[in-house]
């Protein structure tokens, strides 16, 4: 009996120590994520829908970068960093419900597009090229439709859109809604997932085949790991993530787009953004389309080629002397 109690006590002690070590690792990861957010030189402007946070990087012709799900001003700057290196000034706002930009009652793509106009007015910019990445394509499209005079060019990277003819997403049940909202607000649960199930998170959240990442070089593998970690703290992005999850962006008639448009995707994107990109290219007069055979939702091993193409597209449209020319 004494031996049994001793073994039980020893196992309990090991479990407690293990849990403590695990939680310490989580706390360190969370502090790192919070410091990463705070490291940006973030500004905030007042708009018709409330405060809007944004950050900037680079010098040159302005490009408005609209981030995707799980993002914020930090994700936008990271995503468009290669353009800053190519001689552009990246302006990256947080969409509604993401860091620094509270979610108003009207979270539609149209409402988001209108506050981008307020941001440009505050910055004294008449016109910019606009990039919408993933779920950010919705408000980028709305901006081009509603404010064509402010949009010099529209670039949509892996556009996550509802395409006519495809069945709508089934609405959440009340129980599902409570569970999803609880999960989105749990930094600990999200950290556990990216720490112990990185491949599964790459597939489910980043919509990219883990095998494609495993076959890539160390630099690309490190970039994917940074993308996973960059969603922390997920609690600071919960309202925006929920809005992206349930939709409610209203109808976007892409046939009304009258600005130069480029749509980019990959065949093996698990979010099937290739279908969205093709739909946009078919509906928008003169739109250009690039669909890579592989690369997933985060364009593995396609970045250099893709951003060279985007820079050349913007230069050709606006006549900008960038890209080392």
UniProtKB/TrEMBL annotation:
The entry's keywords: Hydrolase
InterPro entries named among the record's database cross-references: AB_hydrolase_1, AB_hydrolase_fold, AB_hydrolase_sf
Presence of the UniProt keyword Hydrolase in the record: yes
GO cellular component terms, semicolon-separated: membrane
An annotated Gene Ontology molecular function: hydrolase activity
Pfam families: Abhydrolase_1
Domain AB hydrolase-1: 61-298
Name of the protein in question: AB hydrolase-1 domain-containing protein
Originating species: Effrenium voratum
């Amino acid at each position: 009996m004494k031996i049994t109690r001793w073994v039980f006590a020893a196992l309990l002690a090991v479990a407690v120590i293990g849990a403590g070590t695990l939680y310490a690792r989580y706390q360190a990861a969370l502090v790192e994520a919070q410091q990463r957010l705070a490291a940006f030189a973030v500004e905030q402007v007042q708009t018709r829908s409330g405060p809007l946070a944004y950050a900037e990087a680079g010098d040159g012709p302005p490009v408005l970068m609209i981030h995707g799900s799980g993002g914020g001003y930090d994700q936008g700057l990271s995503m468009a960093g290669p353009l800053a290196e190519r001689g552009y000034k990246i302006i990256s706002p947080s969409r509604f419900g993401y860091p620094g930009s509270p979610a108003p009652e009207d979270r539609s793509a149209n409402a988001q597009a209108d506050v981008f106009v307020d941001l440009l007015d505050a910055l004294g910019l008449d016109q910019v090229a606009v990039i919408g990445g993933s779920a950010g394509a919705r408000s980028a499209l709305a901006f081009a439709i509603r404010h064509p005079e402010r949009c010099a060019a529209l670039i949509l990277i892996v556009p996550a859109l509802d395409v006519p003819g495809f069945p709508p997403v089934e609405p959440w049940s009340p129980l599902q809604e409570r569970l999803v909202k609880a999960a989105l607000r749990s930094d600990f649960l999200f950290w556990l997932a990216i720490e112990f199930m990185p491949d599964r998170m790459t597939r489910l959240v980043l919509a990219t085949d883990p095998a494609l990442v495993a076959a890539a070089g160390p630099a690309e593998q490190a970039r994917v790991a940074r993308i996973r970690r960059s969603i922390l703290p997920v609690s600071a992005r919960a309202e925006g993530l929920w809005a992206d999850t349930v939709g409610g962006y209203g109808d976007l008639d892409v046939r009304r787009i009258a600005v130069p448009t480029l749509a980019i995707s990959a065949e093996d994107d698990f979010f099937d953004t290739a279908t969205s990109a093709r739909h946009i290219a078919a509906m928008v007069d003169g739109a250009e389309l690039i669909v890579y055979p592989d690369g997933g939702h985060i364009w593995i091993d396609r970045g250099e080629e893709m951003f060279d193409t985007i820079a050349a597209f913007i230069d050709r449209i606006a006549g900008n002397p960038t890209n080392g020319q």
